[in-house]
Design brief:
The protein is of the alpha+beta class. It contains seven helices and eleven strands. About 30% of the residues lie in helices and about 15% in strands.
Length: about 280
């Protein structure tokens, strides 16, 4: 497999970085210490969101289950539309008024799933997502908002699932990566005010955001998440490509410069390979 697109990862100003991409057909490439554990920070949220989708299909919870401020539901919390503040459990706004990125909301979500299932959130996500996908090196140890570690190899298994779902129905995944409360504006952490600030259910959606951490060549339907720990995962459902990158340096100017460049190269290489097949 060629990996010219990933050669640039070795030039990043970090001590260790690993990356990989995959297409719908299983084509792809990877580079760096792909079995090394890295902190995921907020990329944890999409793992918890996916476990929540499993819980919804199992009828453990529903999107309309009340959660958070009066009038807020699981749907609001997943879409960062509950009104909860970043780290505060008291509302900063009313539900559906503004997109406010909230760690507190995901921590409440973890508590709800644990209470509703009778299984602590770490065990629930491990049994619902990690084990059936073979993500044996992924460790969920802390907050439902940011407390997991994983490897590029494991997250590429999750990318495979997002490209071809097996744990949930395609209809449920499509719902999760469709914009919710689409008119809401707000701040995308690290990238400033976005209007609208488009999100699905736990997944950030690229839409027409600018600036953004994915490439300008990513389709507007691209969904995923990035984390403060220098982690990112995106899937472009139009181009049928997914990309993962993990590093041991916190998000900052280096990532803002590096991530769109490597994303563009991955898309170009993946498209070229697909055309060649």
């Amino acid at each position: 497999m060629q990996q010219a697109a990933l050669d640039i990862v070795a030039t990043w100003p970090v001590e260790h970085a690993a990356a990989g991409w995959r297409t719908n057909s299983g084509d792809g490439a990877k580079t760096g210490p792909v079995t090394q554990l890295f902190e995921l920070a907020s990329v944890t949220k999409i793992l918890v969101a996916y476990g929540t989708l499993v819980a919804i299909e199992e009828r453990t919870v529903s999107l309309d289950t009340p959660l958070g401020p009066q009038g807020s539901t699981v749907r609001h919390v997943l879409a960062h539309a509950s009104g909860l503040g970043f780290e505060r459990s008291e509302p900063a706004r009313g539900p559906s008024q503004r997109r406010i990125y909230s760690n507190a909301g995901f921590e409440l979500l973890g508590e709800l799933i644990a209470e509703s299932s009778g299984i602590d959130i770490h065990t629930y996500i491990t049994e619902a997502v990690f084990e059936p996908l073979g993500m044996s090196n992924t460790k969920f140890y802390g907050s439902a908002a940011y407390g997991a570690r994983s490897t590029v190899d494991d997250l590429l298994l999750f990318v495979d699932e997002l490209l071809n779902p097996t744990l949930i129905s395609l209809e449920t995944l499509d719902l999760a990566v469709t914009p919710h409360f689409i008119e809401l504006e707000g701040i995308l952490p690290g990238y400033g005010q976005q209007s609208p600030n488009t999100w699905g259910l736990g997944f950030e959606i690229r839409s027409n955001k600018s600036p953004h951490w994915s490439a300008s060549t990513n389709s507007v339907a691209t969904f995923g998440h990035f984390g403060r720990a220098g982690s990112l995962l995106w899937v472009d459902p139009i181009k049928r490509v997914g990309f993962v990158s993990l590093a041991d340096k916190d998000f900052g100017p280096w990532a803002k410069e590096a991530w769109p460049v490597v994303s563009e190269r991955v898309l170009s290489e993946a498209t070229e390979n697909s055309t060649r097949l």
